[in-house]
Write a structure and sequence with these properties.
Elements: E1 22-24, E2 30-32, E3 35-37, H1 56-59, H2 64-80, E4 83-85, H3 103-114, H4 117-120, H5 122-155, H6 167-175, H7 177-215, H8 226-240, H9 250-273, H10 290-307, H11 314-319, H12 330-359, H13 368-376, H14 382-419, H15 425-445, H16 449-459, H17 461-476, H18 483-517
Antiparallel strand pairs: 1-2, 3-4
Helix pairs in contact: 3-9, 3-12, 5-10, 5-12, 5-17, 6-7, 6-17, 7-8, 7-14, 7-15, 7-16, 8-14, 8-15, 9-12, 9-13, 9-14, 10-16, 10-18, 14-15, 16-18, 17-18
């Protein structure tokens, strides 16, 4: 009888990497459902992990075949991380329907959300603040919001086994179920709807200017009115809004990011390359009373605060990324956000400083684009000016999509929670058409762009500058009375105080603009 060798290597196939259970979503994308793997991995954590018992010391006395099995199991468990409880409804909603995002998508979305029409009115704020205070306020706001952005990225998976996919969910975890909704729901919805309204205003007006430049003296005797241009722009937004989820608009966000960088550079370069108006002055605009000057300064600070938008979308963008124990979602998210905010700084600071240098306190309330058209429409080649306006239109169309996505998500969440089924294509389209035309009617009723920017900046400032600081303290729980504890509480309450002050300034500016116009009669 033939003897078997004492040792025989048995070939055992490696355990295949387990895939997360998926379902086919209404838009045709595959999305995780049920148990998925997410969660932050702390290198210094001493708590038990799924693979802590599979150590080299434990494996040493075990034979080779069993060792291979255990090593494969260890790799699988490390890939899976700890089990995360997902709401099955998330697989039906636009924000969490697709989870194949990456650092590139994060950069596109953050840049598209962070640069837009709000940059064009920054020189208006400088005309009330002057050089010194304008630059100081803009610099402080930039680094403040960059820090709170980092806080939100870290808090997305702050609790093991839980992903906070929306800003309101994180607020509920920090402040409580009811208080979180009261504090976060109104400003985030207001920010989405208010931004969509402002985008319709600037997009429609820019389309009108583009048509006037391209058509020139050949225009018909009955051109479209301003309101009709608003309607044209709204219709284009509604058509593009039929894309199903946040990841599906990554291409639009790329277009929005490229056009934002391009037209931002073109606007300030064209402005400083032309002769300055002879009556230009860099002294802050003087108003008849001290109270009027104070409110104007507060409104200007609100405009600067509104320039740094997009924090209400940070968690939503991060929710589109896969996350495992070894590869948490905050790594690609923060990588993409850093790249995006370098470009954002390269866009906002030159527009504010270059625009104020070119026009001083002669800056129209509509911003640097209106100033460029008013002072240099005959000096700059018509094709170059038309290209600048067309890029602004493309950027507004792209920004409308990403800022409207949380509103679409809220509509569909209400529908699916009541019916326990995903939205059909017709229901989803109906929600988006309804939202687009509501934003249009609000835009017709409130056609005061710069005043609206100040009010938006004041009312939504806590979302960017205050709430993240409070949520860091309440969730991370730093040592009481430590520097970390004091720093975040002071920073948060400063944000709340500024929010109240800027809102008052924005309301005052809207009231005075309304009194000047009495009744809005678009041309």
């Amino acid at each position: 009888m033939e003897e078997r060798p004492e040792t025989e290597l048995i070939s055992i196939p490696a355990t295949p990497r387990a895939s997360t259970p998926e379902i086919l979503t209404p838009s045709g994308n595959r999305s995780p459902r049920g148990l998925a793997s997410t969660g932050p991995a702390s290198k210094e954590a001493k708590s038990w992990t799924p693979t802590s018992f599979i150590s080299p010391r434990f494996l040493s006395p075990i034979g080779t075949p069993m060792k291979r099995v255990l090593v494969n199991m260890k790799s699988y468990l490390e890939e899976m991380g700890h089990l995360t409880k997902l709401n099955p409804q998330d697989a039906w909603l636009p924000i969490t329907e697709s989870r194949n995002g990456n650092a590139h998508y994060a950069a596109f979305h953050n840049l598209n959300a962070g640069v837009g029409f709000q940059a064009l009115v920054l020189p208006v704020a400088f005309s009330f603040l002057g050089w010194s205070w304008g630059i100081i306020a803009l610099t402080i706001a930039y680094f403040w919001q960059l820090y709170t952005l980092w806080i939100l990225v870290q808090l997305h998976e702050a609790v093991p086994g839980k992903r906070y996919n929306r800003y309101v969910e994180l607020a509920q975890a920090a402040f409580g179920e009811r208080l979180g909704v009261w504090l976060a729901l109104f400003p985030t919805v207001y920010l989405s709807a208010g931004t969509a309204t402002a985008l319709i205003l600037i997009g429609g007006e820019t389309m009108k200017l583009f048509f006037q430049i391209v058509c020139g003296p050949l225009c018909s005797s009955n051109p479209l009115t301003t309101v009709e241009w608003y309607l044209v722009f709204t219709s284009l937004c509604i058509v593009l809004s039929q894309l199903p989820n946040l990841n599906s608009i990554a291409g639009l966000s790329l277009v929005g990011a490229v056009t934002a960088i391009t037209y931002s550079t073109m606007v300030w370069v064209l402005s400083i390359s032309q002769p300055r108006p002879p009556s230009i002055s860099y002294e802050p605009i003087s108003l008849p009373s001290a109270s009027a000057s104070l409110f104007s300064v507060l409104n200007a600070l609100g405009i600067i605060a509104f320039a740094f938008r997009g924090h209400n979308l940070v968690l939503e963008i991060q929710a589109t990324m896969p996350s495992t124990f070894k590869h948490p979602a905050y790594v690609p998210m923060w990588k993409g956000a850093k790249v995006a905010y370098v470009f954002i700084a390269m866009c906002l600071f030159p527009i504010a400083i270059g625009g104020f240098w070119a026009y001083g306190n002669l800056m129209p309330s509509g911003g640097i684009l209106n100033a460029l058209f008013a002072f240099h429409s005959h000096d700059i080649p018509r094709g170059l000016l038309a290209m600048t306006f067309l890029l602004v239109v493309f950027n507004c169309l792209s920004s409308f999509q990403i800022y409207s996505m949380p509103a679409f998500d809220s509509f569909e969440a209400g529908y699916t929670s009541r019916t326990n089924r995903p939205c059909s294509i017709w229901v989803r389209s109906g929600f988006r058409v309804f939202y687009g035309f509501v934003s249009f009617f609000i835009g017709v009723a409130l056609p005061f762009l710069s005043s609206l920017a100040g009010l938006l900046g004041g009312l939504t400032l806590p979302v960017t500058f205050a709430y993240p600081c409070f949520m860091w303290v309440l969730i991370k729980k730093p040592a009481k009375y430590s520097f970390n504890w004091y720093f975040h509480w002071i920073l948060g309450w400063l944000g709340v105080a500024f929010s109240l002050a800027f809102s008052i300034g924005g309301i005052w500016s809207m009231v005075t603009s309304g009194l000047k116009l009495k009744f809005f009669k678009p041309n």
